[in-house]
Amino acid sequence: MWYESSSKYKNEFSEEKLRHIAIIMDGNRRWANKKGKTLVLGHKEGFKAAKKAVKFSIMSGFKILTLYAFSSENRERSAFEIKSLIKLFFFALDSEINNFNKYNIRLKIIGDIKYFNAKLQKRILQVEQMTIHNNGLILNIAINYGGRWDIVQSLKKIVNKVENGLLKIDQIKENTISEHLSTGELLPVDLVIRTGGEKRMSNFLLWEIAYSELYFTDILWPDFNHNSFQDAVNSFLSRERRFGGLKKI
């Protein structure tokens, strides 16, 4: 079964401390090369791992799961690989819509979707609308997304409001920028997980993760499972978050 209610992975403090997890899903290509498989198969296995992460998030009581699926820099990859990724994403939308509604998942897409063809853009908007009233896990997928792009588009919205007299310059605060980002309506990111061994953010949620906890693992994304996720959660729960303040004595 795609999802079963279970307390096995329930985290005692998830409601209080850990609400929004963001994952840089890195390692599909290296997993495929290591296994002697095609890149397409590597991405398909990555899709399976994403489903496991969604299941774990539901069972753990998390509010938001953000997955970095396709960065704006990924457009530099081969035409064949990009076409395969778009085809897989279209398949994911069609195959999972019933599960989204069955398990009360709201799908939200962030990123510049104008890069994709009209058919995929339309399908994205349709699935978002079909799940908009679901009030369980928010599944936030970043596609053709870049943190710098998001900050720029936030500033453009703010400038437009200033030019139209809807906002004054001295009214612009940090939260003004936050509210105009693609993630403006979401809770802050508590934990960022990156698989695949690299230790960088790769232009992901640059504004939002200023005080997020970071967790890096050498595990390639297709091999990331419930136990791997639990290790990341345990690491997070063992830390004291100070948000720039002093350590509690």
From TrEMBL:
The keyword Flavoprotein does not apply. GO terms for molecular function: ditrans,polycis-undecaprenyl-diphosphate synthase [(2E,6E)-farnesyl-diphosphate specific] activity; magnesium ion binding. GO terms for cellular component: cytosol. The active site is at residues 26, 74. It catalyses: 8 isopentenyl diphosphate + (2E,6E)-farnesyl diphosphate = di-trans,octa-cis-undecaprenyl diphosphate + 8 diphosphate. It holds the Pfam family Prenyltransf. Mg(2+) binds at residues 26, 213. InterPro entries: UPP_synth-like, UPP_synth-like_CS, UPP_synth-like_sf. One of its GO terms (biological process) is peptidoglycan biosynthetic process. Its EC number is 2.5.1.31. The keyword Nucleotidyltransferase does not apply. Binds 2 magnesium ions per subunit. Belongs to the UPP synthase family. Homodimer. This is Ditrans,polycis-undecaprenyl-diphosphate synthase ((2E,6E)-farnesyl-diphosphate specific). It comes from Buchnera aphidicola.
